[in-house]
Structures
1.
Amino acid sequence: MNKTNDPFKFSIDVILYPLLLVLLIWFVFSIEIRFGYRFNKYGIYPQTLKGLRGIVFSPFIHSGIKHLYSNTIPLFVLSAALFYFYKEVALKVIIYGILLSGLITWAIGRPSYHIGISGLIYVLFSFNFFKGLFAKHYRLIALSLVVIFLYGSMFVYAFPVDEKVSWEGHTAGLITGLLFALIFKKKIAKVTKYDWEQEQFNPEDDEFMKHFDEDGKFVPTPKPDEIEEETPSSQLSSTQSSPNIRYVFKENKDNDL
């Protein structure tokens, strides 16, 4: 079977990694419920040395079942889209996205514990949306439209509309996703360019363009029976002259025996 260079191929990673992320945040929450622990103190506490640990731990800590459930579906959908359309850079976007968005939250956040994986969700939302527009590939643009249709209202919560919501973490995620959309250019699906769109294309060497004159008018190719070939006079005289026939007689030696 011939292998194609189609960058959009389904693999088990499209389901596996998003599922692992979802299971991980639910596993941490189940430990809190089962043993009565509260991990809020491991969240991001801005502008304190101790609060830096929350950059790594805060995405996996949630305040309650409602908070956890509201993050589960968009986390799975957006991360699955990331691994399908941008599989070569998906892990980098997630790992670096957690670190950079967390650092920005630590730098600009209010003096309170910031927890939840919504910062990463905003990274995924921002990257999937902006990268499709920048790449100009029709499938990636379609993904951008789907993302903005499903989760366009997320833009609202990147502003301080609710004091109980960490809008700083959301804003940090939006900024991080946009930066990644600008930075990650390699191994992204490129727009197909045809021969006539290449810089080195020469119309005079193209077989198709030879069928058009300087004014762009089509010049039909003559049919084979309309092509007249001139026969050189020297060949014509030789073909019209009678051929010379030579006979060679050999003596039959068998009669002498």
2.
Amino acid sequence: MTKSIHIVYSPYHVGERNLRVGGGPDKILSFSIVNELEKLGYFVKIVEIPPVNEYEGEIGKSFEILKRTSVAVHDSISQGAFPLILSGNCMASAGAACGLQEDHLGFIYFDAHDDLDSPDVNVNGYLDAMGLSMLKGESWNAHMSQVPYFKPLEYNKFLYCGLRDVNDVQRVRVTEKNHMDVIWGDKHHKVDYIKLFRKQLQAKDYGPALIHLDLDCLDESYGKVNDFPSPGGLHENELLECIGMIPKYAEPKSLTICSFDPDCGGDGDRIAQIAVNAAKNFFEGLNNRK
């Protein structure tokens, strides 16, 4: 088991540094995540994705960041380090998946949103809602073909936890088209996330797995994590226990923490501390993996 972590530091929102969710990585770093991971016995190195100002528009800049993320993750693996991606945008996980170069990659996604939109169904114009359709080869194919190590992936080992803020078209894409496993959030009834998550991990092996933590998986009672809060999400204790148990049941290959805007009107300090605590629990679990 690796005792080295490379933090792939990507403080961008559609290519703009420190804009909106692009401010999340800096906020999380300011809450001593490096020091906390070093206390667990890890050597931690920060690998920064350089600015992409010379590229054209949010599309050109965003895909250049995906290219660089893929290379950074690939290089981390090659050097025996575990990639922890601190990103503004959640589509960073598409770049990470390319860099992992796993033929049968599984996915464990803590996210209120499905990220499966393609341009023909997307209604809010948010490029960051399309990362998983890009990775599957269903959208933006010309751009994705230029991402190093890209090959379309299937989602037959895919688990969402806390998914809830979806429309009818998105729900069909998740359940009927891709047959993904889901622990649904519910704004009317409290979900026992810990029980259901453990049961799902015991029933199916999702490894080797990319782990994705979009902080809007948290319930909206924690305040605005980004511009898309919703009720029925995970509470802090549930997130910490769930993410901490992953290494016991599935082999993790990377962890992405993303989609946190510390200046959008919520309690940025509280969310940043939750993010750090989640990383600590995850890497403690990784330490204990047999």
